[in-house]
Amino acid sequence: MALLEIDGMSVVYGRQQAVTGVSINVGDGEAVGIVGVNGAGKSTTLNAVFGLARKRSGSVQFDGRNISAKTPEEISSTGLGYVPEGRHIFSTLSVRENMKLARCPRGEFQSNLEEMLDQFPILGERIDEPAWTLSGGEQQQLAIARALISRPRLLILDEPSLGLAPQMVERVFAVVRRLHETGLSILLVEQNAGRCLGLVSRVYVMQKGRIVKEGTSLEMANEDSLWTSPKGGPA
Amino acid sequence: MTYSQFRRRGFSVELGVLLGVVILCGLAATAASEVTSGVITQGLISLLLVVSLYIFSGNSGIVSFGHPAIAFAGAYAASLFIIEPGQKAMTVPGLPEALISAQSSAVVSVAIGAAFGAVFAGVVWLPLVRLSGIRSSLASFAVLLVVLNVANNWQDVTGGQTGLSGLMYAPSVLSICIWTMASLVVAAVYGASRSGRRLRASREDEVAAEACGINIALERWIAIVVSGAVAGVAGAIYAQYLGTLTPSMFGLDLDFLTVAMLLVGGMFFLRGAVVGALLLTAVAGIFGRIQNGGTFGFITIDPYPGLAQVAFALLTLIVVLVRPEGLAAKPPQFIANWLHRRREGKAAGVDTVEDSAEKTSMEVHS
């Protein structure tokens, strides 16, 4: 049985249909990617899964429980971690304070924090510094660590490479790969199809709010449509 | 010393300084002439109300125009307990017999005002805490209008436009100072609490806060209840100070005054509430004396009706235009220097396209 099961989900913004009948499955311990050009509906899909955008129809099941009507607060307590697009860290707070804001059982915070600092040593070095002094890559690591401190079973990542220099993208993806190797399930949204395919085992391709293709990374690597945008340019 | 330790120490020092300012105001009010003492006392009462507004608006980032309504509710509840039963039976005959005969001391009545303010805010704001930005501000203004109109017209229960009079206790400068200091401590402790931190996080980035599993509506509700308790105290003290309670005392003038004081001082800072309340009270007091005309030393000034309001409005306008973050928003220079030295020392590598721009443009927040 899939850990995350999105079935026929649609999202409407005003009169605009942003996502139409999207169905996505993520198995336990699996890494799945969603690729597509800007405006394809990838981020909206993730927002709707996490309760940040209102679903018009369809259902979302996580670990056998229906979370379609749950609030983000309730969803985060079910074992789903979300790193939204654009890092979204609290820049005026220190690294430690950012971590403290994440949902975490009271008695477990310190041990979970220490584990995170082992995984993200750079955050340990700057634990009491304001988050705005971190570089972009470090901020992305902080956003990921903050989502992980509640020990989620599935980590949802929205465009983790956005705005980062190639070297830093490499580092962030290495972190995500390492996390996946420890058994963490991952749902990754990424515009950069090459990077996404290198990390995940299955890929969904979105266009204009719909899933237009799905398959294993190996199959999709040979798909021409994955490498070109609908207008003919590179994806 | 780490950034967090430095901020914690800065927090204690700042609270200590603010409490010291209130004590100084109290001493000045005791030693000054009757007129000046009145201005200072009004400044402290204004500060109470501005602090209550800060607790909600400063931490949530949502400007509330409804706080005078909460203050009125608190003042009403408190006043009922310090009016002679015979007078209550005449002015508010629609009240239950138990309330007409109820009496309490001044301190207990203020505590009742705080409790009622908290309950009133908690109940009325329950549907409002899901709103953000201007919609929330407008909704709070609507609450104020409803409360004022109900109070003005429900003669048998509220006393209508003439309100309640014959409040038996007038608060001393000492008691006003104690309540003001208590409100500052409440605001500071709430701000440092887990709930306060979570609410400020949602103010900074709502999406990130929700992604962290923060229940923004719940945190706003907690803030409005705490804020409501302080507003209830402010209303009770205000009514006791004037010896009467009418809905018009909590009308649009007070609403504008309170919001302007917080914005002028710095909406996101407790020190901003103190600076704004005391500065604008001083401006209103000084120009209030000038507008009445008279001889000041060698100078004779003709009366200029409305001068105080114009001066008050102009100062607010200038601050909003020139320093929109508020007069007290900038951290003391030594904090800025310390942060700068630390930044220079660490010199983190620039690894994103926007990093350098971000870092140079980033405001230093305390």
Topology (elements, then pairings):
The complex is a heterodimer of chains A (235) and B (366).
Chain A: E1 4-13, E2 16-26, E3 31-35, H1 42-49, E4 55-62, E5 65-66, H2 72-76, E6 80-83, H3 95-100, H4 109-119, H5 121-125, H6 136-148, E7 154-158, H7 166-181, E8 185-190, H8 193-199, E9 202-207, E10 210-216, H9 217-221, H10 224-227
Helix pairs in contact in A: 6-7
Chain B: H1 3-31, H2 34-60, H3 67-80, H4 85-91, H5 97-101, H6 106-124, H7 133-153, H8 155-158, E1 164-165, H9 173-192, H10 194-204, H11 206-211, H12 216-242, E2 244-245, H13 252-265, H14 270-291, E3 294-296, E4 299-301, H15 307-322, H16 333-346, H17 355-361
Antiparallel strand pairs in B: 1-2, 3-4
Helix pairs in contact in B: 1-2, 1-9, 2-9, 2-12, 2-13, 2-14, 3-6, 3-7, 3-12, 6-12, 9-12, 10-12, 13-14, 13-15, 14-15
Q: What structural class should be given to the helix and strand makeup of chain B?
A: mainly alpha
CATH superfamily of chain A: P-loop containing nucleotide triphosphate hydrolases
- Helix run count of chain A: 10
Tell me the structural class of chain A. Answer: alpha/beta
Unreliable runs of chain B:
347-366
Principal-axis shape of chain B equals globular
Tell me the quaternary state: heterodimer
Low-confidence residue ranges of chain A? 230-235
What is the N-to-C order of secondary-structure elements of chain B (H for helix, E for strand)? HHHHHHHHEHHHHEHHEEHHH
Biggest sheet, spatial arrangement of strands of chain A: 6-7-8-3-9-10
Averaging pLDDT over every residue of chain B, what do you get?
88
The helicity of chain B comes to over 70%
Q: How many structural domains of chain A?
A: 1
Give a brief rundown of this model.
The complex is a heterodimer of chains A (235) and B (366). Chain A is α/β, with parallel strands linked by helices and 235 residues long.
